[in-house]
Write the structure tokens for this entry.
Amino acid sequence: MSYIYFDQAASSFPKPEKVGQAVLEAITEYGANPGRGGHSLAVRANDVIFTARKKLAEMFGEKNPANVCFYMNATQALNQAIQGIQFEAGDHVISTSFEHNSVRRPLERVKDTKGISISYIQPDVDGKRLFELFENEINERTKAIIVSHGSNVTGTILPIEKIGQIAKAHNLLFIVDASQTAGVLPIDMKEMNIDVLAFPGHKGLMGPQGTGVLIVGDHVDLVPLIYGGTGSHSEDVGQPQKRPERYESGTLNTPGIAGLLAGIEEINRIGLRKIYEHEAELTSYCLNRLNEIEGIYILGPDGNTNRLAVISFTIEGIDIHEAAMILDQHYQIGVRSGLHCSPLAHSLIGTNEIGAIRVSFGLYNTIEEVERFIEAVKEIKSFF
Amino acid sequence: MSYIYFDQAASSFPKPEKVGQAVLEAITEYGANPGRGGHSLAVRANDVIFTARKKLAEMFGEKNPANVCFYMNATQALNQAIQGIQFEAGDHVISTSFEHNSVRRPLERVKDTKGISISYIQPDVDGKRLFELFENEINERTKAIIVSHGSNVTGTILPIEKIGQIAKAHNLLFIVDASQTAGVLPIDMKEMNIDVLAFPGHKGLMGPQGTGVLIVGDHVDLVPLIYGGTGSHSEDVGQPQKRPERYESGTLNTPGIAGLLAGIEEINRIGLRKIYEHEAELTSYCLNRLNEIEGIYILGPDGNTNRLAVISFTIEGIDIHEAAMILDQHYQIGVRSGLHCSPLAHSLIGTNEIGAIRVSFGLYNTIEEVERFIEAVKEIKSFF
């Protein structure tokens, strides 16, 4: 019985075959340091990295590939974004209670060190009410809106285009964490007025772990978080102004970026619409089938709403960690149990004490796998 | 004619075959998010990462594997170390003019933001005089000594054991950048009184790019640089105290770390002494042969001194970048030209304006390759 992987929201698996091949090729054929020497191997590494920047810029509506910066993961990218904002004491930021700790913890850090204040909006309301909530929180010291495009707990999608309009109208910096949506939903920084966009390479974009991206709009001047060798302007004692060097110090993860490039190419080949529709079909089917089982409590929106392929639920009378363990050990189905690094989201929906089981679907999951999962949940429920 | 790669100080190449295999295996067989779920794939990813921590701890004389933290590169590790020190305004740090920008730029950043002062010692002197230089700079506000174990420009090795004794005697934090020496020279944090050790995975340790390591001694309390999800303690608004989570946020580069583990195992199999002796033989041979050519000016120590397999030189009457290009294009030999991210070192040795050509050797380079390089340099010299 083959293993079913339903933890796609943490890291997508399996990857397209070309991803592993591209990584291996980088390691075995041109394992040189990109941008650190003009010899042939370094040039080839550099070419691959530049192509990846270019494809990512195109994909996310950014004109200048030099504004695409690579990190180890989305968390580092978000830290560069959030810790890099030139705040003054008393400045104010609006975020949401859906944020992952990769947004919340850097925000709280900046609150402590720079004396900013933060409003966390509860975004589980209809569009119109949501926009009012944002508008109501804006004051003269508000400097930025920072939101997750989609919740990694409930699958809720935030209307970032409209939130971007609000940000623009009030001249606020708009930062979006697309950790759950990059490679699934269309995102256009220009059209959506997004100033800074962060996302991982290893989730929806199908790249390997060890890759995260920050796209920093031309007009946004972030203070660098990491200082070091940039392969050029070595004589400057400070970090160079030139991008991407300003926000990228040290050797890049060339093999990882080569793999990410292969992932992006596969995503482009299939098309976002097809990917979203496939995941929506699995999600809708799973939600409907789960709803048939007594004692299953599902968090977040139903299957008729636009939502991500992430479903969190509890089973009455069964410890979530035990259920997840049985699913793994007995049924060979990998799911997550816990708070998923997003305590505020759980606090909001009343599962902060117990957490939830989370299943998340991806490109290569099938209806048959969802069906096997449903049967497993039914069996587990019947044992208790 | 096969390509000769003499840029090992930037990134080692080729890697042991097992490194690429281990990376590919991680991507294709257990591409899950380590520490982010108890399912089988995540457990396997976690096991590989724990084993890598354990082997690295053993290799560098650290008792607790949880003190081994992973980053994208040594630069990020060094930033965590240097920016993480709890400085007060007026504190003082001693470093050297050999430092790479990955040490110098974070130090200068901390100088600007926290108001510390920095003394850069010129370490190109004999042992006894060097220790005097350190002793002379220490004052009552001195808090740390931060040095590179070996220069990436001249190949000079610093006597870190003795410097560690000085640090200990004065109760100073001792931070070592082992970017050029990890995997080549023995380093024991305990014996050498090293409090914090940083190094890349992709140089001497033969891992893939995208890997850097910081080992933080038990007694050292650094302020985290990156904040975010840690897969545990999700309910805390702050970064957890527990290590390595405290210093590692977001998804780790599992494939990269799997590759690094394979690299370490290969280094352990061969043994550091054998690796150093092989590299020393190539270096000594190359230095002797270069010295026979008129108009070659070699920077740094000669072949009779303990030194690293890094040789920087200029050729009288020939632009270094042009020479490097000819070596690459015509002779298929990859070398570096420029300042190598270490302007202070060049400033010290009088090559700040022109830079130098650098060749650096590794595990798999051969005397025959060095000989082909020498013949090429002779030919180039004869053309001009």
Summary: The first strand of chain A starts at residue 4 and ends at 5. Chain A has eleven helices and 13 strands.
